[in-house]
Amino acid sequence: MHCTAYIHDILFLFNNHFMQANLGRKVGELANPDMLVMEESATVIQAAKAMKRKDSTCVFVSRNDTTKELIGIITERDILYKVVAESKGPFKITLKEVMSKPLISIDESATAMEATLLMRKAGIRRLPVRRSGKIVGFVTLLSVIGNSPSKSVETGQIETSSILTGVTCPYCGSGFESKQDLSKHVDRLHIGSGLLEGDLRQI
């Protein structure tokens, strides 16, 4: 019993140290440059197929003009709630009609903590990263927090809810043994039934 408690305390201290170090990193170091981008005139079904091929959960939307400026984002949640739930035809609806906008972004010099606070405040899970005014990649709530549980980022403190689990839900703090289990949990509880598991592929 005492040994188990000791190990738990050691893991708690190590996890907190790792978490604080991670939240202090610059988002430019954490940004994923592999962005799936499609023009605003593309249809939802084209986006869904591209997301399936690339194994991506979102598409960043650009203007049709020569600037190719990113102006919005469409996620699996947007497709589920704005298209499927509304019985709209994915073959006709364009990304411009259902994308989330404006596109909120953050400078690469910002910290992971600042990015997390911004995402929480805006109610988003994906955040484009700017370098000299140009978007060069993006971070997600999970990528900036890592495997560290989060319940009260707003106060600048991360609370540990399940030290001995592999990954923790950044929304409710539930612990899971793998990212796949976490993905299913987020899908079912925080997004919508079955979307990440492939129901969208039947469109």
Properties at a glance:
203 residues; alpha/beta; CBS-domain; three-stranded mixed beta sheet; 8 strands; globular; disordered C terminus
How would you describe the overall organization of this protein?
The protein is α/β, with parallel strands linked by helices. The chain has one domain: Roll (CBS-domain). Helices cover 39% and strands 16% of the residues. The chain has 8 helices and 8 strands. The longest helix has 22 residues, at 2-23. The termini are far apart.
Q: What topology does this entry show?
A:
Layout: H1 2-23, H2 27-30, E1 37-39, H3 44-54, E2 58-62, E3 70-75, H4 76-84, H5 95-98, E4 106-107, H6 112-122, E5 126-131, E6 134-140, H7 141-145, E7 167-168, E8 175-176, H8 179-191
Parallel strand pairs: 1-2, 4-5
Antiparallel strand pairs: 2-3, 5-6, 7-8
